[in-house]
Amino acid sequence: MGKSIAMNGGEGPNSYTHNSKQQRKGSDRAKVLLSNCIQEKLTVENKLNTANQQIFRIADLGCSVGPNTFASVQTIIEATELTFKTQILEYKPPEFQVFFNDHVGNDFNTLFKALPLDRQYMAVGVPGSFHGRLFPKASMNFMHSSFALHWLTKVPEEVTEENSSAWNKGRISYVGSSSEVVKAYTEQFVRDMEGFFRARAVELSSHGLMAILMPCRPEGTLPSESIIMQVFEVLGCALTDMAKEGLVSEALVDSFNLPIFIPTGNEVKEVLSNIEHLTIEKSEEINYPPNLSNLEDVRSCIGHVRAVMEGILCEHFGAELLDQLFERYSNKVEQFSKTSVFTRIEKLENLFLLLKRNPSS
Amino acid sequence: MGKSIAMNGGEGPNSYTHNSKQQRKGSDRAKVLLSNCIQEKLTVENKLNTANQQIFRIADLGCSVGPNTFASVQTIIEATELTFKTQILEYKPPEFQVFFNDHVGNDFNTLFKALPLDRQYMAVGVPGSFHGRLFPKASMNFMHSSFALHWLTKVPEEVTEENSSAWNKGRISYVGSSSEVVKAYTEQFVRDMEGFFRARAVELSSHGLMAILMPCRPEGTLPSESIIMQVFEVLGCALTDMAKEGLVSEALVDSFNLPIFIPTGNEVKEVLSNIEHLTIEKSEEINYPPNLSNLEDVRSCIGHVRAVMEGILCEHFGAELLDQLFERYSNKVEQFSKTSVFTRIEKLENLFLLLKRNPSS
């Protein structure tokens, strides 16, 4: 299962809590879509049409520490209640049990303390990788995952082996790397997504729904043309500079790679076509190009990259390197933004999918 | 719901993890009892007698950070599997989902990292007070609570009010206090236990079981004759000494009280007699007098008191006081043990109860 990846915990200036606006922006745009989809596609089963109060179990997979996860859960609950009201004659709101999932290294203590006091659901934390099984068979009614599925379970091994043809020397992602590196990353992504979807197909109850929001790149583009990956690779440039100046060992930089892959929508759907019982009910691409000529947007983006990356960078390079690394990173991103080094900036995309668990026949 | 109470987290020398041997000792003795009770009383319902794999949901209420909670869960799972094997012809082990519950201030991060890697269950953390609702209606098959129910939701208000007849000046528990103080504590205990049992009666599935292990005092003794409370009250003596020496303000000591009550078995059963749908299937008292003339036992006991009490003491008095306080406490307990200041040391007891959720008629 590889190393545990976790966003920065706590409440400090570099915490994920205070640096997840980009994620929030995406979620806000997806909110209307999510709400409409639930009302359109959620089937209230006959057995619910009774006077007994029912249990409706929701999971947020890759929830991090909030506050975005609480907003998503609220949207799901409100839309579900509306749907129940419409479909059930003697309506009684179900009891909602919400499962917040992330890696075991996630700061669940902070997450739990931040739970909304006025929540109308029972909250539970689930530590573990969503690439494997997390819940009992057919036990979940609705699953959700937002901005988490681009994380791989691990860096593909070939990429870190010095005598492999896919060795990724001098880079931290597949941007600008050989086709062997890109291939290794693509295959890792396919394996991981398969694991994710197979686990969910088991865990979702019959007619259960799953909504996914994840960064993707436009159809017809190469993996290395992803603008998000390009922004991440600037960290690699900063690290290479520091290695040249003798501030960090070259070998340490060579052995570091990001376990991230940004697919196209079709690459995701291709994986799904091999999964029994899951069908695509809705597929949309949400575009919101960040304005990288706006300094505030750029800084928000840099703050976000730090909140997200600090954990794995710290583990590999040690904490003392971080401040200098991010100062250099920040300067480089601002400079690259001004000089249009980044390509296809106009095509930043997010993929929204609504999937349904069909009954086993 | 009052303040959140949590045992010391982490892995340090004063952590609950390394200072819960007394609890473990009690659990070990209760282990055989627990296992036998499950095999004797667990009813495998007809609907389980199918080829489909079933879900069996277990909760440990007041789990703290381990390792005791993992040992208890293991006992419950093994006994449940044995029972299923005996009662079901085409046996297939159920899927176990285990809910680890404690206050929101509990160190869930440490708990999650300590989860046994070879566990045969899916693990979940549930933040919140077990004196209220935590789970959906009729959703739990087995609940367990060990050494947690002597904690009250709060110190009874009268006890902290200067112009109340129950003001508990100069003491931190009801040991040696006026009858008004004892009455206030007793009433708080009854209210809290009622809340606990009523919530469980809703959450347990029909025929679901609950096992409780909690410290109690012998029948016919007064609340203040509890040896556990006497050992805790020595902290009060140490604090009063420090106040006299001007090391801490007297008002601060006066306003501190422990939210703990040690009942007799009959006091617990009296509360239960008012709860619909819960019946007592088994009741036993487990005696294991600690040998307070053995210095190692005394020190283990002192280490445990620190792991348990440090959190609330720190919140009230500040962290800087703690080392000195516990040094004085340690000296006093060792001295009192030698000079037999503690009464009824031979009568330390624990109450074990097995309860069943009977179907609503």
Question: Which secondary structure elements does this structure contain, and how are they paired or packed?
Answer:
The structure is a homodimer of 361-residue chains.
Chain A: H1 21-41, E1 55-61, H2 68-87, E2 95-102, H3 108-113, E3 121-127, E4 140-146, H4 179-203, E5 204-216, H5 227-244, H6 250-254, H7 265-272, E6 278-287, H8 295-317, H9 322-338, E7 349-357
Parallel strand pairs in A: 1-2, 1-4, 2-3, 4-5
Antiparallel strand pairs in A: 5-7, 6-7
Helix pairs in contact in A: 1-2, 4-7, 5-9, 8-9
Write a short abstract of this structure:
The structure is a homodimer of 361-residue chains. Chain A is α/β, with parallel strands linked by helices and 361 residues long.
CATH topology of chain A: Rossmann fold
- The overall average pLDDT of chain A, rounded, is 88
- Separation of termini of chain A? 32 Å
Q: State the CATH class of chain A.
A: Alpha Beta
Uncertain parts of chain A: none
CA radius of gyration of chain A:
21 Å
Count the strands of chain A?
7
CATH architecture of chain A: 3-Layer(aba) Sandwich
For the largest beta-sheet of chain A, the strand count, sense and barrel status come to: 7 strands, mixed
Biggest interface and residues each: A-B, 26 and 26 residues
Count of helical regions of chain A = 9
The named CATH superfamily of chain A = Vaccinia Virus protein VP39
Multimerization status: homodimer
